[in-house]
């Protein structure tokens, strides 16, 4: 028996490769599928099943492409309806993988078709569950992502409570838990950094599995503090339900080197967005005017999905040398398939051709502190709600990057703003978006709040309302 977790940090996502006696099952594969095929081929094994735990919202699964390439059967849980051929499993239906058995446990709540797959070893002993977004380590899946459903999030949370109590918590404590996501995913609130656990550990540490918890308490606690889902979630879920363009085609049409003149022509005539995926320090030094920065060295795909509202938006890339294929691949993981090409030779070629560039002013935290002490400054803190509430500068305006597209009316083009996040990545994203919309009086604070805390500027700690 071989079980391998294939974890992708950018998406905080775990896919799984299971092999026994020459047969393979893949659970929740990524968009690019060749690695699974190569792994099976190396073992002289055949991919028999592709199990999908639900219609994923935070990434485009590779199930459709993988099935076409291998002839494997795509399995969803009860009630799943798609535009391509699948096997819709019955609750408790069993599937054979070599000497192993995989049982489908219908666990609705995160979505209606959500299914946990129970793996039994060659002796019939329950060995592990692949819990998708039903059960995470430290949390459970958000119950507000059902596609075109009349059910409320409260209805789905109630279903999730029953699924956990009746299907998951009845399993032995030593059963291994392999979830679909870890810390950093927007599919839950308090996900652990660990990516493998046990039922027993979760019963002890996961707030949602408390034995004395009522259904009403569960609904309240699961929904409490749950931010709205990113705008691309519904779009990715629909792609997973209806199908999508072949990944190799997306890579072929998107990974095209363009001269500066061709690049500029496409930008002007195709209404293309220029997306700069270099490091924030490179972007600060020089960039194409009106380009948007979202660096490959951060949570690239989720920020693209959260901030670029049109999933069909034509995109032109400015990439570090040798990173064009990676950029196109990571865009495709969240359904952004309309890449037109990348700037050959990078920003240096653009500059050598005498084309216009722009810069972003950036100062150290120490310089910012001196400036703030000399008089009033406008501060935009672009961190998430929880980060801001935990601690922030006394005079800071909260301008969360997640909601920047809805907050433009809260800032003025006539003012100068000093922008910071936690470490410097998100503040440059925010500054690039503001610059592209005509806000040019912007100053980035290098090192973000991590560096600002080392100054003596006054801070405000969060005070729990219950203590007031």
Oligomer: single chain
State the major sheet: 6 strands, mixed
Q: Which structural class do you get from the secondary structure elements?
A: alpha/beta
Helix residue percentage: 25-40%
Q: In percent terms, what proportion of residues is strand?
A: 15-25%
Q: Can you identify the CATH class of the largest domain?
A: Alpha Beta
Concise overview:
By secondary structure, this protein is α/β, with parallel strands linked by helices. It has helices at 34-42, 63-70, 153-168, 199-205, 215-223, 232-242, 247-254, 260-269, 280-285, 300-307, 324-332, 346-352, 365-374, 385-390, 425-436, 448-452; strands at 2-8, 13-20, 23-27, 46-51, 73-76, 87-88, 94-97, 100-106, 115-120, 126-132, 176-179, 197-198, 257-258, 273-276, 292-293, 315-318, 339-343, 361-363, 378-381, 391-393, 396-398, 417-420, 442-445, 459-461.
Polypeptide structure, described:
The chain has 468 residues and is of the alpha/beta class. Helix content is 30%, strand content 22%. It has 16 helices and 24 strands. It has helices at 34-42, 63-70, 153-168, 199-205, 215-223, 232-242, 247-254, 260-269, 280-285, 300-307, 324-332, 346-352, 365-374, 385-390, 425-436, 448-452, and strands at residues 2-8, 13-20, 23-27, 46-51, 73-76, 87-88, 94-97, 100-106, 115-120, 126-132, 176-179, 197-198, 257-258, 273-276, 292-293, 315-318, 339-343, 361-363, 378-381, 391-393, 396-398, 417-420, 442-445, 459-461. Strand 3 (23-27), helix 1 and strand 4 (46-51) form a beta-alpha-beta unit. The protein is globular. Mean pLDDT is 94; it is low at 463-468.
């Amino acid at each position: 028996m071989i079980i391998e977790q294939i974890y992708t940090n950018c998406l905080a996502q775990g896919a799984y490769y299971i092999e026994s006696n020459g047969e393979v099952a893949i659970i929740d594969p990524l968009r690019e599928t060749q690695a699974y095929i190569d792994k099976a081929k190396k073992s002289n094994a055949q991919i028999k099943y592709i199990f999908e735990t639900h219609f994923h919202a935070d990434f485009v699964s590779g199930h459709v492409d993988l099935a076409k390439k291998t002839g494997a059967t795509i399995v969803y849980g009860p009630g799943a309806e798609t535009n391509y051929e699948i096997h819709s499993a019955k609750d408790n239906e069993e599937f054979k993988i070599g000497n192993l058995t995989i049982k489908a446990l219908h666990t609705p709540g995160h979505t209606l078709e959500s299914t946990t797959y129970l793996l039994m070893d060659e002796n019939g002993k329950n060995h592990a569950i692949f819990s998708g977004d039903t059960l995470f380590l430290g949390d459970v899946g958000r119950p507000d992502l059902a596609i075109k459903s009349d059910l409320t999030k409260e209805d789905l949370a109630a279903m999730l409570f029953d699924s956990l109590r009746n299907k998951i918590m009845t399993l032995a404590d030593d059963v291994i838990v392999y979830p679909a996501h870890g810390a950093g995913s927007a599919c839950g609130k308090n996900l652990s950094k660990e990516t493998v656990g046990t039922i027993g550990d979760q019963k002890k540490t996961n707030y949602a599995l408390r034995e004395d918890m009522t259904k009403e308490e569960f609904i309240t606690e699961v929904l409490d503090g749950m931010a709205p889902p990113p705008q691309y979630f519904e779009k990715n879920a629909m792609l997973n339900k209806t199908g999508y363009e072949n990944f190799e085609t997306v890579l072929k049409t998107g990974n095209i080197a363009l001269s500066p003149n061709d690049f500029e022509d496409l930008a002007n005539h195709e209404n293309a967005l220029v997306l700069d995926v270099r490091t924030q320090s490179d972007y600060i030094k020089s960039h194409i005017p009106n380009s948007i920065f979202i660096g490959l060295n951060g949570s690239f795909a989720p920020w693209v999905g959260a901030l670029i509202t049109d999933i069909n938006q034509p995109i032109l890339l400015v990439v570090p040398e040798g990173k064009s294929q990676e950029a196109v691949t990571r865009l495709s993981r969240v359904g952004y398939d309309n890449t037109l090409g990348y700037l050959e030779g990078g920003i240096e070629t653009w500059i050598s051709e005498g084309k216009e560039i722009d810069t972003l002013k950036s100062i150290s935290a120490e310089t910012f502190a001196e400036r703030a002490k000399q008089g009033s400054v406008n501060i935009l803190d672009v961190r998430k709600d929880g980060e801001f509430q935990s601690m922030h500068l006394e005079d800071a305006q909260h301008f969360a990057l997640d909601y920047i597209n809805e907050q433009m009316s809260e800032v003025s083009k006539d003012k100068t703003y000093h922008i910071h996040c936690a470490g410097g990545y998100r503040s440059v994203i925010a500054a690039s978006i503001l610059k592209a919309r005509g806000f040019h009086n912007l100053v980035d604070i290098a090192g973000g709040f991590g560096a600002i805390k080392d100054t003596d500027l006054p801070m405000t700690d969060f005070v729990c309302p219950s203590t007031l």
